[in-house]
Amino acid sequence: MKLFKNKNKIIGSWTTTPDNILFEVITDIPFDFHVIDLEHSSLTEFQCENLIRLANLKNKNCLIRLTSNILVLGKIFRIILKKSMINYLYS
Predict the structure, then answer these.
(1) Which of 19, 55, 61, 87 has its CA 20 to 30 A from that of 25?
(2) Distance between CA 43 and CA 58 in Å, rounded?
(3) What is the pTM of this model?
(4) Rounded to whole angstroms, how far apart are CA atoms 86 and 10?
(5) Residue 69: which of 46, 50, 90 has the closest Cα?
(6) CA 71, CA 88: separation in Å to the nearest integer?
(7) What is the 3-state secondary structure (H, E, C) of the chain?
(8) φ, ψ for residue 68 (rounded to 5)?
(9) End-to-end CA distance of the chain
(10) What pLDDT was estimated at residue 78?
(11) Using CA atoms, how far apart are residues 29 and 68, in angstroms rounded to an integer?
(12) Alpha-carbon distance 36 to 22, whole Å?
């Protein structure tokens, strides 16, 4: 992401909640990016897709922290490839 290369300091949010309303409030804060954490949360693929869609509608940079669960990875990658609207984090 150019964001990480072009700025000295960047600030982002880390989300583990499936609550669309809370995430919408968080995306109104002028953070540089928002991370959706699938590894340390109970978010489903459907909930993750809704949060991604919300971030995209608000033109916000969105990163996904992926789980090591291969079935979930496959579903999320299909969303990423289909929508081409997010970056992802995997460690």
Answers:
(1) 87
(2) 21
(3) 0.70
(4) 18
(5) 90
(6) 16
(7) CHHHHHCCCCCEEEECCCCHHHHHHHHHCCCCEEEEECCCCCCCHHHHHHHHHHHHHCCCCEEEECCCCHHHHHHHHHHHHHHCCCEEECC
(8) -85, -5
(9) 17
(10) 65
(11) 30
(12) 13
Maximum Cα–Cα distance for the chain, whole Å? 37
pLDDT of 6-34, one tens digit each?
767 888 999 999 999 999 999 999 998 89
Give residues with Cβ within 8 angstroms of 7, minimum separation 6: 32
The rounded distance, in Å, linking the Cα atoms of 43 and 28 is: 21
- The predicted structure's pLDDT at residue 24: 93
Q: What is the pLDDT of residues 45-71, one digit of tens each?
A: 788 888 988 888 888 888 888 776 656
Surface-to-core class of residue 82, CB atoms within 10 Å of its CB (0-12 exposed, 13-18 middle, 19+ buried): exposed
User: What token pair was written down for 73?
Assistant: 């990875």
